[in-house]
Structure formats: C-alpha cells, structure tokens
Amino acid sequence: MLVLDNFLLFFFGALIGHVVPRFPVLLMSRGRGFNVHFPPHPEAMPLGPHLNQRILHLRTFYWLSLVVVVVPLTVGLASVRWGNAAFGFGLWLAGGWLVINRLQSFIGGPKPPWTMGMAEQLQTVMNRSSSDAACCAWPVPVWGITEVRCSNCDARLLRLARPDLGRRRTDGRIMGLLRLLISDGYPLVSSEEE
Ligand SMILES: [Zn+2]
Prior knowledge:
Number of helices: 7
Oligomer: single chain
Shape: elongated
Radius of gyration: 20 Å
Distance between the termini: 48 Å
Number of domains: 1
Order of helices and strands: HHEHHHHEEEH
Bound molecules: zinc ion
Helix content: 40-55%
Number of strands: 4
C-alpha cells in the first residue's frame, strides 16, 4: 500500500511540475479580451502586426517557463528535505526535464514553437504581398494549419505549419488544455516539406 501511495504522490508531483511552468503559455493570452483582433480558433489567422505581436508574446511566455519552473523546483527541494520525498522527486523530475527541454534548443534539435525568425518570415510574406511581386491584385495572406496562403487567389505563399497561437481553443477547456500540454504549442501536423 505504501509503495502505491508513494507512486501516486510521485506521479502527482510530476504532473504539477509539468503543468505549473507552462501556465504563462496556457493561460496568459486565452482571455476573450486578448483575442478581439483574431478570428476564433481554429480558423485561418490573417497576417498582420497583431499576429506578429502575438507570436512574440508567446515566445516570451515560452521562455518565462524557465523562471516559473523555480517554484516547483523549490517546493520539490523542500518536499524531499522535510516533506514527502516521492512527491518532491516527481516535482524535480518534471521541472528538471522542462529545463533540459528548453535549453536543448541552444545546442540543436527542434526550435521553440514560436521564434523571432517565424515573425520575420511572416513579415516577409506581408511585404511581398504589398509589393509588385504580389500573388494577385488584392492579396489577403492568411495562416492555415499547414501553410500561409492568399485567401483571395488561393496561392500558397509560405510553407509553415501553424503552432498554437494563444487563442481560446474551441475543443473545450479540458481537451484544449490536454492538447496544449501534449503538443507544448507545436503544430500537431507538420507542413508537407518536412
Ligand atoms: Zn493572392
């Protein structure tokens, strides 16, 4: 019975250590007031300064998890020292994993789901759309699930899978939260090229 209790406490600690550092991405931009400039999820997102600003915000929230993770790591340390060791190890494992996961992008491996380069790529598409090289006379670039296309002439403008964009998700509060925790903000489908 004690083994089972400890296992459950370990699992509970790991769950908390996994969710808490992701709070900024999970919560901070989901309110109705934060999304008045955007169509509801999962509709295609029109390109523009609001979208670029959103990407840069999400990028900040993503890196903010490295600050927030101090909370579960500290509680974990206290718990190992003075409280329940299994619970504390759970917190430590999930928190430590997050730190490794965030820092690996400096050595190689997958880039974060939101980057400055992504905002620049979208800006390039916008610039091209308002130049002579535009796809049609009235270009309206929108970001679908796997690519940026013109919603006027349907030309493909950029092959780039869309990550979560911080909108309130329409798959329900619980399912949306689960999906985000599993995907960590990355697109669930990759663009064909990759
Ligand atoms: Zn067009």
